[in-house]
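Hi C.,

You asked whether I'd gotten around to modeling the 126-residue construct. I have! Everything is below, sequence then structure, no commentary in between.
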Amino acid sequence: MRNKAQIDEIKQKIAELKFKLAVEEAVLQRLDPDSARGSQKSLTKENKQPRRGSLAAQTKQILTESQKALSITELEDALIKRGFAKEEDRDKLNTLIPSALSRRKDIFERVGRSVYDLVSRRKDAL
């Protein structure tokens, strides 16, 4: 019986320490994003698919189907046509698209003023 009590006590201490460690890592991440203990490194977007249904995923599918680079206006039209956004949200899309695509440089490449294409297609063309 005594061993079981000790085991339970140790398990409780481990749980408390894990919680404290998670809190400290969160504080460290907030203060210095680059110094997080390796855990954040595994969360990078590099070579990962965009979340299904996200703006990046929709845009990737549109560019794949178009088989050519598209302007922001063409991407807006396609997103509205697919029902991803409403016509009255066009001005918001004009801001969101470049922002979303610039965050995913592993997938998208700016090939001209307000014109984007897939990195994979550009590499194949070379």
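If it helps when you're writing up: Residues 55-125 form one domain.

Thanks,
B.
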